[in-house]
## 1
Amino acid sequence: MSAQPEMWRVSTIEGVFETDLETLKQWIVEGCVLPTDKVSKGSLSWIDAGRVPKLKGAFDGVIDTPPASPPQPDMPTSQGGWQVPPSETQAPFEPPRETSYSTTGPLVSCQNHPGVEPTYVCRACATMLCAECPRFVGTSKIAVCPLCGDLCHSYTEIKTKTARADFQSSGFGFGDLSTAVRYPWKHKTALIGGAFLYGLLLLTGFRGSLVAWMIMFGCISHVISQVAWGRLDRSFMPDFSQFSFFEDLVQPIFLGLGITIVSWGPVIVLVLALVLGVVSSGPPSTLSPSGQLHSAEHQGPSEEDLSVLMDPNADPNKTEEANRKLYQLRPGAQIAREAERSKSEQDDPMGMFRQLLPYLGVGVFFVFLLGVGLVWAVFYYPMALTVAGYTQSFWSVVNPLVGLDTIRRMSATYFKAFGMVLLIQIIGAIIGGVVTVVTSPFSLPFMGNLPAAFLNGSITFYLNLVIACLLGLSLYKCADRLNINVD
């Protein structure tokens, strides 16, 4: 009577299995068992597989082949499972690879039952099996291939994973724009309800607009986060059934604030600086106590001039000069002087240009900076949304280096996405203008065009979802470059 083989238990992410030592070594070589997975011999304690001396050779790719033995019948294990021996006609062992299974076409069916859609796929030999063909470990639902004895994957999961891999490797283009346009309509109830609520809140004043703004950025970040991981089937509305004050209220506000700061912040600062600079600057002048401006040429008499006027024995020339300065303070003289100045400006075509010279240098500089700020805001705004969506971090959003590094990694994909986003925004502006013109007869005094505000708000809600889905798809297509684990 032959000795019983050593029975080992192994715990992996796919479950707990019982096998002999040689099969366990083969699983290690195949990559099915990692050094960090737990193993146990008989009733001994669990230990990391990489620490077992008998298994170190298997982790190095070396298996000690035992002497050939005659085939033994299937023997039940202590847990009621089945130890499946290799087939006599089985080819020499080769480590199985994760095969890109063919899951499309009319010929995909069970290996043993043609015409029956498969339920399982063997991960080693890629055999398609229906629900009745595989063997199962004990009373569990862990399927084992009857041909090679390896574990089986769910056919539905393999089919979904294959389709996802094909979609991800297809590149980014106008097909993704079409997917983004259709995406909100997959969840019609959420779309109609969200658009109605957003448009209604815009009519309720500043507080309502703030809440609408919070909902919008919450949905945008949620969509980008979901689509970037390939979850196109999930709703774009956050799950409010488990309301979190920070995640559902505070975080969207800060993300929206961060997007505004990093994209439009420079433009806002430049506009304020330009306005304050124009107000506080100007050509040199003196301000009299009465609030009237006088140039140095038409200043009033000084104390010395007043003493000359009061002295009857003063020099006639000094007296005449003091009288002239005193005359300049009369209202009639000021009016005459302004009229003379206006006439001289009309006669001199360069007069206005000379007045603008003090402002011209500063104005050109600010206009240049303002143009650069507008270009930055338009170009970087989609990336700010993208960073907010896949990081959910305020500090990552306000740090432009994170976005610029993402643009570098995405390369041409981001520029394609940016062009599509710009196209959507232009179309939205055109539609908004048409809606405003059509509903202009319904404009009310002191209240404005309420129907246009509501309809434009609803359209804006939909278009922002399209933009968010488009940006999420651009991330999904660049997942390998951005270290996003879409599995």
## 2
Amino acid sequence: MQSPLHEHVPALSGQSLRVLIWDHDLVDMWCLDAAGSRLPYRGRGSTWHCHPELEVTLITRGEGILCVGDHIGRFTAPDCLLLGTRLPHVWRAEGPMAGISLQVDLDVVSGLGAVPELADLARLWSAAGHGVRWQGTTATALLSLSERLERLPAVGRMGVFMAMLAAMQAAPRGAAQALSQTVLGTPGPGSSAAAMERVVDHVMAHYREELRLGDLVAMSGTSPATFHRHFVRMTGKTFVAYLQALRIQDVRRALTDPSRSITDIAFAAGFNNLSHFHAVFRKAVGCTPRAFRRTLIAG
């Protein structure tokens, strides 16, 4: 039985490219049928998940925390990402969010990987295993192409997708940012994978609160050693490092509000010791919170 960690995407007759659209959140979504009509679809992008398809995601509205493999950062529309097969990822939006995802089978026998004309994209497929973010003129071009998707039938959408791949391949050096430092795996299907997904989602939902490692181990139903191994395999980080990274992203966003004190921001994000907070922030960001705030104001 497939674990909840692995997103179930709809099998559409006559289509190898799935187009998913959302206007407000990553739960109540739509999937386009062959003619371009919207079909209701229940999405899982706001929970930690992966799937066997290659994915191009374009965020057109919203912001929040983005986790891709071992990368924890922020997304802010407009944002364009290429995610490899079985690469764990999640978006936690802070308010309404809109966007489009294109998912395609990359299998070298039956999927897109079997098309000989696309053999030159092998380097792109490899980079996708780490997750890639596109910025600048490349991102603008990808977003412009995406605007045509819902007005086209299935064959036209495939043409747009090919044009997106060509734009990525032709992007100038420096236009793309690799996200995850390592290519991560996930626990095999089963109860342990489902439990670990619940653990990661619980941490993301409650990272501002006090979280005890023992409680999370109990939630996973595994031993401490197995919990540690699975958590690192899924996220690329220990529980403590993962929790700190989420809190630091929260702090970075809050520092844009000049009316809030740094002490208030630190405690609100879940840090209960100021000296520890300053040490963690400096290590993660490379400067003090005060210096980081000054760069935001100067920028």
